[in-house]
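The instructor's notes for this session suggest beginning with a concrete chain rather than abstract definitions. Hand out the sequence below and ask the class to guess, before any prediction is shown, which regions might be ordered.
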Amino acid sequence: MHSSTAVRLTCCLALLVLTACSTTSTSTDLATVQQADLQTLRVGISPDYPPVIYKKDGRICGIEADLAAYVAERLGARLEFVEMPFEELVPQLEARKIDVIMSGMSIADSRRDKVRFVSPYLHMGQMALVRASDAARLSAPGALEHGGLRVGCVRGTTGELFARQNMSNSTCQAFGEPEQAVAQLRSGQLDVYLDDAPFVLQTAKDDSTLAAVPWLLTDEYLAWAVPRGADYDYLYDQLNLLAQRAKQRGDLQRIIRRYFIIEIRVK
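After discussion, reveal the predicted structure:
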């Protein structure tokens, strides 16, 4: 972990998570955006990142699910979720198989030449998930830099990028789904698992045998992505407008606060 980029979590790392899977918007005071030729909004998702986007009892849930419903309603479009592995989201967007990615994707330089990111809606970063029995040792300053660790991450994510660039003295293994890596962490086959802060905090909350190292390893923003090209200019503009208005009117905060409240202070 590099101290120059680390952010200390000064709260108790508590999450406030809804038990219900709501996909209705929080407010109807925002005027519907009219678009004659967009009847269905195809939203690409990889629903394995609670509380951002996940499945419960066969239903799509989470912050992104609620935001997708919020957006579709105001676009006057039918909402269609298209599920796929995370690493397939960008290629499917480029192929116009989906209209927008709303799946907890962070703005990364490696993606900018392939997609257009809408104004970000959440500031966060990568965190390390470890076994509770190792938490004190691996939370010590510099512990993640020393090497010799078996590190897991999801293929194609900023967690993988961070591990390969900053933990070169450790062994990095990329997985197709986070649960595969978390299972190996529990069984002792991995020492550390890197993922987005909301997922790490939620997983540690749900499993007392695991713990979150209380530092952000990166400084990132989550945002929606649309295809590059003039054919998607209208959707790009309207999504930016909706994101801006949702922030101004407090709708975005109300949706996020359904799932968690985290106070982060830069040291």
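Then share the key points. The longest strand covers residues 40-45. Residues 1-36, 263-267 have pLDDT under 50 and may be disordered.
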